[in-house]
Amino acid sequence: MTTLTSGAPQAGRWRRPLPAPVTSMAWTVWRQHRSALTWLGAVLLALGATMLVAGIQLHRLYAVEIRHGCLGPSAWSHVCRPLQNTFGFGWPQSYTGLVTLVMQAVPVIIGVFLGAPLLAREYTAGTVRFAWTQSIGRTRWAVATLGLLGAAIAAVTCLLGLLTQWSVQPVAAQTSRLADRWEPGIFGSTVLTAPAAALLAFAIGVLAGALLRRAVAAMAVTAACAITVANLTYNRLHYWLLGQGTELTRDQAFGAAPNVGDLSGGVLTIHETAGHSTPGPAGAWLDQGWYTSASGHRLGDGAVNHLLNKYTGTGPAWLTRLHDTFWVAYQPGSRYWLFQLILAGGTLLAAVALAAATIALIRHRRA
Amino acid sequence: MNVIEATRLGRRYWTTWALRDCTLAIPAGRVAALAGPNGAGKTTLMHMAVGLIAPTEGRVTLLGGRPAGSREALERVAFVAQDVPLYQHLPVEDMVRVARILNGRHWDQSRAERRLAAMDIPLRRKVGKLSGGQQAQVALTIALARRPELLVLDEPLAPLDPLARHEFLAAVMETAAEDGTSVLFSSHVVTELERVADYLVVLARGRVQVAGDVEDLVRSHQLLTGPAADVATIGGRFDVVHAQQGLAQAHLLVRQRTAPAQPPEGWQAHPVTLEEVVLAYLREPGASALPGPEPVVIS
Question: What are the sequence ranges of the domains in chain A?
Answer without folding.
Answer: 36-242+338-364, 247-331
